[in-house]
Amino acid sequence: MAGLKVWGFTLPSAELGAEVREYLGGLPVERPTVEWVWAEMDRIWREFGLDSRRSLSEQPIAAFYSHPVWTMNGIFTATDPVSVGHRTAIAGHLAELCPDRVADYGGGFGELALAVADRRPGTRVDIVEPFPSPMGMARVAHLSQVQFVRDTGSGGYDAIIAQDVLEHVEDPIGLAAQLAASVRPGGWLIFANCFFPVIECHLPRTFFLRHTFRWVMSAMGLRYLGVVRGAEHALVFEREGDLDVVSGRRGERWARLLGPWLNFPPINLFLRALKRVLRR
């Protein structure tokens, strides 16, 4: 059966259900702007009657994250030059670390896992995805070293990536601690977060971490190594030994107090200027 081409990206029709084909068939002919993609995701969010101010456990959040809009988002990120650049930079950074086992948490469409496997053919990549799609699984089926899994299991990973994940969950620090515990001592974590109100599924209760996430991770016992060149929103940490989750939670409480103030542009600009002066 011929593949379905969307924005120059070909999908195998055999892996597309009727709902997905119908949705993709109604998309713009040319690849839209990222703002259009965000607006479309917000439209589907509102169709499900979701409210980021309420507990997600009381709402049809699984239906939202299983909607074909996420296939559309995957196609967009696979073809958008900015997204491709970020993914290439993260995969390149990982290749320099030479990990044997990597987990891509929330890796849905499989693009990052494919990029990592291309740069490091000997690396095993687990895509940890609570809402796996047949399309995502089909795209990596030919690679023996890439597989979809439901969780990080017994851990022991050399590296874990969480790209555009923590801003979607109600307890981002709890999830970050879980991922850190799944990395071996001496291993690495790459968190690429967007604690901004870009789309409605970015939960406002996480925005206090916009400028404080690094501090909280340090309080938990992770050593901050810097950012990924070419994807400066991706922060790299090393797990040096035992985690101190209690101290991390204490840092989280301080971050909840200070974070909203640091998000206020005049204060943030002043602190950045002060930091530059102190470095001289």
Features:
two-stranded antiparallel sheet, 280 residues, alpha/beta, 2 domains, Rossmann fold, 11 helices, 9 strands
What CATH first level of the largest domain would be assigned? Alpha Beta
**Unreliably modeled segments:** none
CATH architecture verdict of the largest domain:
3-Layer(aba) Sandwich
Roughly how much helix do the residues carry, as a percent range?
Answer: 40-55%
| CATH homology superfamily name of the largest domain | Vaccinia Virus protein VP39
Shape: globular
How many strands in all?
A: 9
Question: Which series of helices and strands comes N to C?
Answer: EEHHHHHEHEHEEHEHEEHH
In short, what is this structure?
The chain has 280 residues and is an alpha/beta fold.
What does this structure look like?
With 280 residues, the chain is α/β, with parallel strands linked by helices. The chain has two domains: 76 residues, no CATH class; 182 residues, Rossmann fold. It is 44% helix and 19% strand. The protein contains eleven helices and nine strands. The strands form two sheets. A seven-stranded mixed beta sheet has the order 5-4-3-6-7-9-8, with helices on both faces. A two-stranded antiparallel ribbon has the order 1-2. Helix 4 crosses helix 5. The radius of gyration is 19 Å and the shape is globular. 35% of the residues are buried.
